Hints:
Blueprint: H1 17-33, E1 61-65, E2 71-73, E3 76-78, H2 83-93, E4 99-103, H3 109-121, E5 127-131
Parallel strand pairs: 1-4, 4-5
Antiparallel strand pairs: 1-2, 2-3
Helix pairs in contact: 2-3
Amino acid sequence: MKKLRTKENTAASIDLTPMLDVVFIMLIFFIVTASFIKEASITLDRPDSSALVKPEKNQNITATIHPDNQISIDKRFIDKRALRAYFERHSAKNPEANVIIQAHNQSTTATLTAVADAARAAGILGVSLNNNDEIK
């Protein structure tokens, strides 16, 4: 009589070799394609505190535009037509001067543009706008 073969219980296993191959190929790909750029750096010599130069006081021109579209500089009202001459005189004394325009919410954009255009026509390139609601 023949004996029946008994099946041995073999555990099913997954072959991980192809997955490891793919992982290593991807690793090599990313290493090769990564750009290794050495960033340049600059060494700076800081000046001593005794060598500090104090900036001149009030180099900037502050032009204030009031709610009724009147323009004042240094708490003196000035006409739109005289703005360019004022800016030219001030920039002749201090060429590094900038113009800071403080415009009220109710002032018109035309007045703001007129002040900025007068400053640029006088040769002042640094024109900035300061939003200050405390203008009376």
